Amino acid sequence: MIFKAKNGAKIIEKINIDEKKALEKFPNLNHALVIVKIEDDHLLGWHKWRNDWETFGGLIEAGESLRACIARECEEELGLCHVNFEYLGIVHYDMPPGYWVKEWHEEYGGLYGVTLSKNAIRTIEKNRQDREEIGAIGLYSELKARRENIDEINEKLLEFY
Predict the structure, then answer these.
(1) Span 33-68, pLDDT tens digits
(2) Alpha carbon distance 30, 129 (integer Å)
(3) Global confidence as pTM
């Protein structure tokens, strides 16, 4: 086990596996996330329905590859197209009941990273489409200084990139 949050959620392991083979090996892989670095800081999004700051990403749609999922989610949540994401592996979780699943469950998710310049923040703020789910964006250092509610699992994921 890598990490246990106060609510009991766990990052069990980070699995290094070929990106194209991941869905074959883990057919229950259900999401992809991206860690966004802005120079020496990280960018997070305020998830309106869960009331916390999180990394960006979402659920894999039927027939979608991991890379297609993260590209689609980043276009929606960050307004960015044609981004050169770095594949970081698969993260295995033990998650408490929550927004999508109402009982304790294991999850597998693809993890990506991307580094952008500070100028990208303006572009993201202007072009991001999904403002209904992601209400705001913010730099991790500023959110921590203000003692904002940052999801513990997502905060731990930042260390992977």
Answers:
(1) 999 999 999 999 999 988 999 999 999 999 999 999
(2) 22
(3) 0.93
Q: What is the pLDDT of residue 27?
A: 85
The CA distance from 92 to 153, in Å, is 12
Q: Which residues of 56-82 are buried (b: 16+ CB within 10 A; e: fewer)?
A: bbbebeeeeebeebbbbbbbbbbbbee
Residue 112 burial (C-beta neighbours within 10 Å; 0-12, 13-18, 19+)? buried
Q: Which residue type, as a one-letter code, is found at position 60? A: I
Long-range CB contact pairs, 141-144, < 8 A, 24+: 141/41, 143/44, 143/53
Backbone angles phi, psi at 160, to 5 degrees: -80, -5
Cα distance between residue 140 and residue 123, in whole Å? 18
DSSP sequence for 115-148? EE-TTHHHHHHHH---TTTEEEEEEHHHHHHTT-
Q: Can you tell me the distance from the alpha carbon of 144 to that of 150, in angstroms, rounded to the nearest whole number?
A: 8
